[in-house]
Prior knowledge:
Layout: H1 2-5, E1 14-16, H2 23-32, E2 39-41, H3 49-56, E3 66-68, E4 74-77, H4 87-98
Parallel strand pairs: 1-2
Antiparallel strand pairs: 3-4
Amino acid sequence: MHRTHEAKGLVCFSVSVDEPADRPRVEAFLKEKGAALPNFLLADEKADAAHLQARFGYEGPRPHYVLFGRSGERVWDSTSAKEWLDEKGIEKLVERELAK
């Protein structure tokens, strides 16, 4: 999705809540998958829990997806959504937001 819509303004990144000691494993996984987006590794998930909840709606389930509109408002997240969107559903949501 990042590669498909990057030119239209989509910015993707990932946040890993793995232990810092697991960073080499995380980086190897991202490289294996061909991830071409920034990945952030939390230093301490518990210390950052309130910030993650406030900004991303993150309550612990993984994976957790969040879509922000162009003005920075949270449009959708996989925790508070009434129904889970599959890849095609998320793609449609992204396309709708990019058209605004």
